[in-house]
Automatic annotation (TrEMBL):
Residues annotated as domain Cobalamin synthesis G N-terminal: 51-129
Pfam families reported for this sequence: CbiG_C, CbiG_N
PANTHER family: COBALT-PRECORRIN-5A HYDROLASE
UniProt xrefs under InterPro entries: CbiG_hydrolase, CbiG_N, CobE/GbiG_C, CobE/GbiG_C_sf, GbiG_N_sf
Chain ranges of the CobE/GbiG C-terminal domain: 137-261
Superkingdom of origin: Bacteria
This protein's name: Cobalamin biosynthesis protein
Amino acid sequence: MIRIICLTEVGLQLARRLQHLFNSSSTAVSIPVSTPTKSDVCFKPTPFKETVQSYFTQGDTLIFICATGIVIRTLAPVINDKYSDPAVLVLDEQGQFVIPLLSGHEGGANELARQVTELLQNQLVLTTANSYLKPKYVVGMGCERHCPEAVLQGLLNECLVKAGLTIDDISAITSIDIKSDEVGLIALADTLQKPYLTFNAQRLSLMEERLSTKSDYILKTVGVYGVAESAALYQAQQLTNNGSELLLNKHKNKQATCAIARSYSL
């Protein structure tokens, strides 16, 4: 849920306009990428602090139309970290500027801010350091034993299209170490002339808090909650020695899974 929070009549007009644009836009608003979201206008929520904090802690994306200072003072007691906090944006009452305030990359605030900028035709104020860095992309894949290369290739192609990337953008194909001898994955990497890297469950478990979903079945089977996302996130982080994030959450067909992660380097 996207909560558009406003405190004045002028702000309310902008909030309703933005909600209308969300609902009528031909491009689905998404947080994070490719996750459709509904919007709700909240005018002078009462009690303000407690209501807004409850929205935040339950994971709602928040768009404030008010002073940045009000937002900071209200949310400060409940802010946790960039991997778990929802996206927070701030707009001025005239709708001239939009600032992704919290969870710019991991929570999708930067992406939502870009969409708001397109809808309102205003100025995006992007302050995250990663705006000046180069992205590194890694594919993570999991599959049934003896999954054909063609099936893996088809799923990868679908994911690249969804992420707006080409295979030339990808630095490696990754998986868990029990798939180190998986013929289809090895062949796929060879065909695409990409490194094929695998990691043990202990290393992949370090990515647990960044996963979009967690599977108890996969945990019991291989020792981690998710293979594709974990492997992509781990290698992306290794490439840059910086944090990593999911660009594309796990997608799957009947035999395989695929996810794409990114990290940033100078």
